[in-house]
Specification:
Shape: globular
Radius of gyration: 21 Å
Oligomer: single chain
Strand order of the largest sheet: 1-3-2-4-6-5-10-11-9-7-8
Number of strands: 11
CATH topology of the largest domain: Amidase signature (AS) enzymes
CATH class of the largest domain: Alpha Beta
Strand content: 5-15%
CATH superfamily of the largest domain: Amidase signature (AS) domain
Largest sheet: 11 strands, mixed
CATH architecture of the largest domain: Alpha-Beta Complex
Distance between the termini: 17 Å
Length: 461
């Protein structure tokens, strides 16, 4: 029955009952996850009438723990479901487990989890990307047909790229953030990881929409996201973001050029696009995200929930020891950087300036979309790297998000779709970006590329 998980979801549904599909997923996890370590918790009692799903462990559920990959929340179970979870439950979904992540979603490799790293199913010596590495690895290893992840600077698209699957970051506000544990509130979003574009489009239709529990959710009507998947790309205009790709070389550049030829073969119009401020995106991102993280993570203080130190004699001791014992090194680094950026005398020089350049970037993207239906880059600057290769070099790790962070800063939808393989057999990926609430068109273009290449059919051994 495990071969059911190799099929597109609509085909698997036609061949087996919901119970058989959930059982197939649970058996695949039991067989394959010992080496991959995609899951932090497996729900052996999963029931439902729909798709078996994995959930990133920073999205709260009532029937499984939510640890955020951190010891500070190692025993926490939420009293309520995230809105996205509630909508999936109402649609009959079965939640078979919670997936591993970089602690509090702070990382690009899933090496910063307090519970050990996840490994890339294509090569167990390499990272799956992050921070949604567990979700991407679970889908790539055919343990589940789909998973939820979260995005702050590329944490769905980058691991999807490293693992050879589809990863969507929707428009900011398209999916409710209620129940997503906050990292950086102006950037955070729930995203979707699937084998195919159609599965991604259909899942977005279930969980998208306004939510009174999230004031940042949009009242824009939910579209029929799968309606145009067969329409092709003839006559559509694609802009190649030259400032992002002009220094690219080697197999990533060659693969990107091949992807452009696939689109041209379908009648797409491809020209250069100008977004000069994109070169500042990583600098903007790591100031804004860390500043917001410093504020959001102040709630983990040993008082209300989570880890409480036994060594505390005073209130200051309680804060100091609980946070010191509960948070890992990367989370501490980002809190300190964010606190510095917000401190008296530095706010305008760092956070204020970063927000000003962010506004410039938003304007340049708007100008580009006045000419183009889509903007294109590779999803990542390189294939998956070796575990441990960048843990001592945070800046090198941060640059893994160089192509993905701009979409989060601007709030536009973006999708990663498999585009081939490196000489070592590692997945490569194409990123397509669309204007705000352009998900339906984004799925149309991605589905064309997927049909022409069929890379989704290949799986790890």
């Amino acid at each position: 029955m495990s071969e059911l998980l190799d099929l597109p979801w609509h085909e698997a549904q036609a061949q087996a009952s919901p119970r058989e599909l959930v059982d197939a997923s649970l058996r695949a996890i039991e067989t394959r996850d010992e080496s991959v370590h995609a899951f932090l918790h497996v729900n052996a009692d999963a029931r439902g009438d729909g798709m078996p799903l994995a959930i990133k462990d920073n999205i709260v559920t009532t029937d499984m723990p939510t640890t955020c990959g951190s010891r500070i929340l190692s025993n926490f179970t939420s009293p309520f479901d995230a809105t996205a979870i509630a909508r999936l439950r109402a649609n009959g979904a079965s939640f078979v487990g919670k997936t591993n992540l970089d602690e509090f979603a702070m990382g690009s490799s899933t090496e910063h989890s307090a519970f050990g790293p996840t490994r890339n199913p294509w090569d167990l010596s390499r990272v799956p990307g992050g921070s949604s590495g567990g979700s991407a690895a679970a889908v790539a290893a055919r343990m589940v047909p789909a998973a939820l992840g979260s995005e702050t600077g590329g944490s769905v698209r980058q691991p999807a790229a490293f693992c050879g699957v589809v990863g969507l970051k929707p428009t900011y506000g398209r999916i409710s953030r209620s129940g997503l544990v906050a990292f950086a509130s102006s950037l955070d979003q729930i995203g979707i990881v699937t084998k195919t574009v159609r599965e991604c489009a259909e899942l977005l239709g279930v969980i998208a929409g306004a939510d009174p529990l999230d004031s940042t959710s949009s009242t824009q009507p939910v579209d029929d996201y799968a309606a145009d998947l067969a329409s092709g790309v003839r006559g559509l205009r694609f802009g190649v973001v030259r400032e992002a790709v002009e220094r690219l070389e080697g197999e990533v550049r060659a693969n990107f050029d091949e992807a452009l030829n696939v689109l041209r073969g379908g009648g797409a119009i491809i020209e250069d696009a100008r977004v000069p401020a994109i070169s500042y995106a990583i600098a903007i991102y790591y100031i804004v995200a860390n500043a917001e993280a410093s504020a959001n993570l102040s709630r983990f203080d040993g008082v209300r929930f989570g880890h409480r130190s036994e060594r505390s004699k005073t209130l200051d001791d309680l804060y100091f020891h609980s946070r010191g014992e509960g948070f890992g090194a990367e989370v501490k680094r980002r809190i300190m950087l964010g606190t510095f950026a917000l401190s008296s005398g530095y706010y305008d020089a760092y956070y204020g300036r970063a927000q000003a350049v962010r506004a410039t970037l938003r304007g340049q993207f708007a100008d580009a979309f006045a000419r183009f239906d889509f903007l294109l880059t590779p999803t990542t600057p390189e294939p998956a790297f070796k575990i441990g290769a960048k843990t001592d070099d945070p800046l090198s790790m941060y640059l893994s998000d160089i192509f993905t962070a701009p979409a989060n800063l601007v709030g536009i939808p973006a999708i990663a779709v498999p585009s081939g393989f490196s000489a070592e057999g590692l997945p490569l990926s194409l990123q397509l970006m669309a204007p705000h609430f352009g998900e339906r068109a984004l799925f149309r273009a991605a589905a064309f590329f997927e049909r022409e290449t069929e890379y989704w059919k290949r799986k790890p051994r």
